[in-house]
Every structure is written in C-alpha cells, then in structure tokens.
Specification:
This protein has 3 helices and no strands. It is mainly α. 0% of the residues are buried. Keywords: Hydrolase.
Length: 37
C-alpha cells in the first residue's frame, strides 16, 4: 500500500503548483503523506 501511494503521490512529477486535484485537496494529501512517510 505504501509503495503504491508513493508511486502516484509525487507533486514534483505531476504538478509543482499542486493544482492537479486542487490546491486544498492536494495540500491535504501531502499532509497525510508526511505522516505515512
């Protein structure tokens, strides 16, 4: 599960601005990722 999330959760590869899913939504994902990592 962790490796799978790591694969698609990469703001640098997708969007540097983090607006792919929406600024707020993306910010929430990154926040969750921090705890996961």
């Amino acid at each position: 599960m962790n490796f799978h999330t790591r694969k698609w959760i990469k703001p640098e590869d997708l969007n540097p601005n983090g607006t792919l899913f929406g600024g707020r939504y993306w910010n929430g994902l990154m926040r969750k990722q921090r705890f996961m990592l």
